[in-house]
Known about the structure:
The complex is a heterodimer of chains A (about 325) and B (about 450). Chain A is mostly helical and about 325 residues long. Chain A contains 15 helices and no strands. Chain A starts with a helix and ends in a 9-residue tail after the last helix. Chain B has 2 domains: about 30-145 and about 320-370, D-Maltodextrin-Binding Protein, domain 2; about 150-315 and about 380-435, Periplasmic binding protein-like II (D-Maltodextrin-Binding Protein, domain 2, 3-Layer(aba) Sandwich). Chain B is an alpha+beta fold. In chain B, the strands form 4 sheets. In chain B, strands 8, 9, 10, 11, 12, 14 and 15 form a 7-stranded mixed sheet that branches. A 3-stranded antiparallel sheet of chain B has the order 3-13-7. Chain B has a 3-stranded antiparallel sheet with strand order 4-6-5.
Amino acid sequence: MTALQKDRKRGPAPAPAAPAAPTKPALHRRTTRRHWWFTPWLYLLVPLTLLVAFTYLPIIDMFGYSATDWDGISPTSENVGADNYLELFTRPELFKVFLVSGVYLTASFVQIAAALYFATVLSFNTRFRNVFKGILFFPYLMNGVAIGFVFLYFFQPGGTLDSLLDAFGHHGKQMWLGDPDLVNKSLAGVSVWRYMGLNMVLFLGAIQSIPGHLYEAASLDGANRWQQFRHIIAPSIKPIISLSVILAISGSLAVFEIPYIMTGGANGSQTFVIQTVNLAFKFDKVGLASASAVVLLALILLVTWIQRRLVPEERVELS
Amino acid sequence: MRRGWVAVAAATMVVLTACSGGSGGTSSSAASAAADPAKVSGDITVLTNRTDQIKDGSLKKYADEFSRTYPNVNVKFEGLTDYEGEVKIRMNTENYGDVLLIPDNVSITQYPTFFSPLGDSAELSKTYNWTDYTTVKDKVYGIANYGTATGLVYNKAVWQQAGVTQWPKSTQEFIDDLKAIKAKGQAIPYYTNYKDAWPLQKWTDNIGGPSCDQGGKDKLSTTAEPWAAGQDLNAIDGLLYNTVHEKLSEDDPTTTNWEKSKTLLGTGRIGAMLLGSWAVPQMQAAATAAGQNPDDIGFMPFPQAAGGKLCTIIQPDYKYAVNVHSKNKEAARAWIDWFLNKSGSAQAEQAVSSVKGSTLPASLKPFEAQGVTLLLGQNQQNAAVISKIDKGSEIGLGSPDYRQKLVDTARGAAPGDMNSYFADLNKKWAASQKTVTG
């Protein structure tokens, strides 16, 4: 750090970007040339517009809808105040679907563990590591609908999975999606398959920023791979792991795509978001559905906040 | 530079207003027919769910023929795969084509807000069937092109091999027949199409069939317990329950496949599916494609005879309507009139044309021969109330979800049995009815 600072001091005079006295516009323009204060904002304009238009405005609208009895199509709607929230909280069966999220949450810890394992293994000089990176990351690039259809065949009785098990000596037809005890586990498995690659790439990126001399020093001291992971890698990538856990929890509360495509929420695989979509588009209760969505948002914020309190973020110094 | 800023700001405003803009005012000028075809002009967009007819060019052929009579009208088609979902969302704007099919889940009371009146019901009901499905305050807002009979598509060869030659006249007889088919071991007796789900909602079309009463559906508004014994829905959903419960349907309903089911029925590996007479040509095509005899595909009415006679309801398909915001209403109306009366599309679909006095299609000829009562639609006086009760109760007669749960219950994948599930449905319906009708 200090060396760097010294370097800077020795270098040429500070760049003209440093704020010159803005009292004389003519002078200011001459010295700063094209460095207007709003230049960065100009670049940000497009993403910010998109963000506001497609994230924040709809959320504000959603808060508005949640206080009405709008049916999703008619030009008029009545303001009903907090009635939707009252209805939501007086119908406990609407929250029962969160039990399904528990399965996905368990699966997402499996997913993080697997991602950590693969990221660690691939960060060492493994043979064909780039091929394996590609193979493991590939599912994330695939379209969710395509994945849904592929796995429908995979899970059919006598389908790919059954044939595979057959080859390993486990005979018999399983109803992977038809059995109410299995369906959520099967779907969560698809979700792990799909998102594990993303986690792995995140971890891999973080692991690669660890200076190589640390491993060298550790191996001189006789540390094995597990000890290297335990004392060098894991502490260094802690922020990324905790981010992944937050994403995993909010993700499992808001599972939608895979069950919606594969089962449509049938056979006890309905999640909170599918239930919300049904309320809005099948039963014309957009007000109630918006209230559900607001509650889900609040719930996720709450969980994140609790987690941040339990595991506070700390800067990791790598040197 | 300054000009660039203005442009960016303007673009932002456009994006913002487009997202938060409400729907504008509505004009309610009628879409009436013009006397002279040559004077009608304009470009119209027709929204359709038949993406297959766009692909194979048959819609284009209709449009070419149309332009011979109406040389100044330019017809463009827009196919939507998820018709219901997409059109309903687009109806929040003004841009939902000039001619469209009324989505099923738009409540009848909202028709005047979105569609132009096509004429007085007293007038139009003389020419077309099923106008009461879209009549609000004596004005008709949509006309169906054709109707199809409710009932079961079946493979004649499979049923004959099982020794069944007569159409079953009771639900019990139907179950016994399916058992005979199962005993042969060649075919899955019944296929639910549970995964694709929409075929399950076709069961709802049969309301009024078991009792052979056009007012059967209307009665739901005053019936507190539609799933009680003796009611149509009890017979309909009871049949589905027993079929699945007796293991006469496919092993794993959660991995069914609609496209595959056509081939399976066409090649005699499925005994029957409850759909509608519209499905007959598709099954025949699948049979032909698989090298089987398309004449094996048959169609039978719902297996419950009222007073010794079987009964079927001819239900209208999608109703054609004119967008209330359309700039070329005359041209739009001209297309509807021509398409319904002159195009011959209803005949091509082997369906019952909505134009009164048309002949029955070939697939329904056996119905006439066997003396099946044909009812032209369900009465629609209480349609709005029923839809309100239904949505309020979150049962969804028009969506497959509650029948998926019924199938789950029947195969033991969900707790309870038929009686407990029906009691649950009755309770929900009664509660919602109380809120709606007071």
